[in-house]
Amino acid sequence: MLNSLSGRFLILTTVFVMLAEVLIFVPSVARFRADYLTDRLERAQIASLALLADDMLDPDLERELLANAGVYNVALQRNATRELMLSSEVPGPVAESFDLREAGPVTLMHDALVRLASPEPEVIRVLGYPSQQAGQLIEITMEAGPLRSAMLDYGVRILLLSAVISVITALLLFLAVRRLLVRPIKGVVGHMIRFAEAPEDARRIIKPSASVKELREAEEALQSLQTQLAASLRQKERLAQLGGAVARVSHDLRNILTSAQLFTDRIEMSEDPSVKRMAPKLVGSITRAVSLCENTLAFGRAEEPAPVLTQFNLAELVNEVLEAERLAIDEHDVSLSEDIPATMQMRGDPEQIYRVIGNLVRNARQAITGTGRPGEISVAAWADDTEWVIEVTDTGPGLPPKAREHLFQPFQGGVRKGGAGLGLAIVAELVRNHGGTLQLARSDESGTCFEIRLPMGEMG
């Protein structure tokens, strides 16, 4: 209960209402004290009227009048003459005097708090204006104990009333908040739970119904999120089914094409001029088809294995990549170079780093040969204090806008005709597994540059 929104709101409401009542309590008690003293002044003035009617009063009658007024002495000033109207024995010296004629709100509140904090019996003097303009000043002496008792009694009644008001107000606010806020929020939470049980079911998407503006905005945002998520899950399910089918087809097709490659080797040995002219194109087509099948199968795995970290020489690994690529190109068409310190050591999975650089170099080579013009591919690397940086640069035609938009997305970022766009997706995943980043540094008419950053960190 206390951990719920409505429970905490109930507690806070009660606390704040009580705080407001406490702030009201001090002025109320101060006002009560001022009214109490004014009433004593009026009673004393009425008692003094008996003396004005008869100059000689019986001592017993005088004591009775003072007892009824609740005072010891009464002095009245009229026509610039001050005289003691009624008097009796005072039990002790006057401890303090209070002039109600010039007392402001701050003074009244201060005097009230001091009186509440002073339990000792005291005699006090009070001065004020007579009622009905019966003079210029009236002065009385009285016991402070009854005043304090009356103030305490009044204060207790104020606090009890405040507590009742606080409880009723908090309860009403609790019910209002529960109906206007808590219940709609619970409804939204319920929709989220039901949607989480079957996110593909479009019938479980929330329909905004809240009347409160902020809650309705939250429901609309949740509806948009659930709609997008449901559509994304349906698309991923279709892609997963399609991926499984493509992987099986690619596996069988790769075996068939591998066998076809063996026959093309013999066809190339033919002396027939037309066969010699067509054989290279057939070999190239079959090679590209085999590469596509291998990439599809590689991407179709659930995930790439975690990198096995070892220390290796990056320059030697890059040289192996470039030597393998030189077997597939005419050096007069594409030149390969590297700019890596011969002693540069890095920590990573050499097999996966080989695949990363190999894919980027192969993509660059295919982009250049596709233009029919000569070009250059270079691999550079260096290390700073926190990471290793590898750049693969080519002088090809650059990437088209569509390829840049979906660069690392499978089946969408392909540049070469007949390609599936899997190479860069695989490269990006391998780099992420090393905790690094792969980004397109630049791509224009002068060429393309990919940048790999691998943090040293725990692997350094």
TrEMBL record:
Name recorded for this polypeptide: histidine kinase
- Please report the organism this UniProt entry assigns to the protein: Salipiger bermudensis (strain DSM 26914 / JCM 13377 / KCTC 12554 / HTCC2601)
- Histidine kinase domain location, by residue? 248-458
Q: Which GO terms describe its cellular component?
A: membrane
Print the keywords alphabetically.
Answer: Coiled coil, Kinase, Membrane, Phosphoprotein, Transferase, Transmembrane, Transmembrane helix
Q: What is its EC number?
A: 2.7.13.3
Q: Single GO molecular-function term?
A: phosphorelay sensor kinase activity
**Ranges in coiled-coil conformation:** 215-242
**Positions of transmembrane segments:** 9-30, 154-177
Q: Which reaction does it catalyse?
A: ATP + protein L-histidine = ADP + protein N-phospho-L-histidine
Where it sits in the cell: the answer is: Membrane
The lineage's top-level taxon is: Bacteria
- The UniProt entry lists the main location of this chain as membrane
